[in-house]
Design goal:
With 235 residues, the protein is mostly helical. The chain has 11 helices and no strands. It starts with a helix and ends with a helix.
């Protein structure tokens, strides 16, 4: 498996399971309807664990443009490979989101709440305030990258043995910081599915909230870059 395929497949698995649990919780007539935030955060953590474990040997399991850029800023990853990795991550996220729609197509049709439908693809802030929303995403991603740097301190990449602690870190971020924005903490995780939402023929859907879309893309990158610089000072 090439690094491109590894990043694409790993990211697709994360989105399939992660957006899948959101669909299970918020869409009508599912087995998990109204399962709540704990179910969502646990499943996202397990999704990251699975994606990292699958792709670690092939690509180092970045599965997140913020991770890729943060590692490059810290001198732990070749800048020449950054565009390829991000492209694979974005395509993987789009593939995962499409598969969620296929799996839950009947439940999308049975759900009238357009915000809930959008929320199965991408993040929506609980209280819309660009400054605070940006800060929340940057803080969450900063914490993710600091954790990744220390988890992989003795390695050059996210090895398969690092999959569990990274997954647990994602659970903790979701439970601790997921309330305000839904903790995208991953530009591909939000942008790829948002594009798919815009393209799919979803019954009674709303707009894809492009006015907000820049925050879960730019803020995680800012948080990752800050984490790289801070790690360089404290390691």
């Amino acid at each position: 498996m090439t690094p491109f395929v590894g990043e694409l497949l790993g990211t697709a698995v994360i989105i399939l399971l992660g957006d899948g649990v959101v669909a299970n919780v918020v869409l009508n007539k599912t087995k998990g309807n109204n399962g709540g935030l704990v179910a969502i955060t646990l499943a996202w953590g397990l999704a990251v664990f699975t994606g990292v474990f699958i792709s670690a040997a092939a690509s180092g399991a970045h599965l997140n443009p913020a991770v890729t850029i943060g590692l490059a800023v810290a001198g732990k990853f070749d800048w020449a490979l950054v565009p390829m990795y991000i492209g694979a991550q974005l395509l993987g996220a789009m593939l995962g989101a499409f598969l969620v729609w296929v799996a839950y197509k009947q439940h999308f049709d049975e759900t009238n709440d357009a915000d809930s439908k959008l929320g199965t693809f991408c993040t929506i802030p609980s209280i819309r305030n660009a400054g605070y929303n940006f800060s929340t995403e940057a803080i969450g991603t900063f914490l993710l990258l600091i954790g990744v740097f220390f988890i992989t301190k003795a390695n050059s990449s996210l090895g398969s043995l690092d999959a569990l602690p990274v997954g647990l870190l994602v659970v903790a971020i979701g439970l601790g910081l997921g309330g305000p924005t839904g903790y995208a903490i991953n530009p591909a995780r939000d942008l790829g599915p948002r594009i798919v939402h815009a393209l799919l023929p979803i019954k009674n859907k709303r707009d894809s909230d492009w006015g907000y879309s820049w925050i879960p893309v730019i803020a995680p990158i800012v948080g990752a870059v800050l984490a790289a610089y801070v790690y360089g000072l404290i390691k």
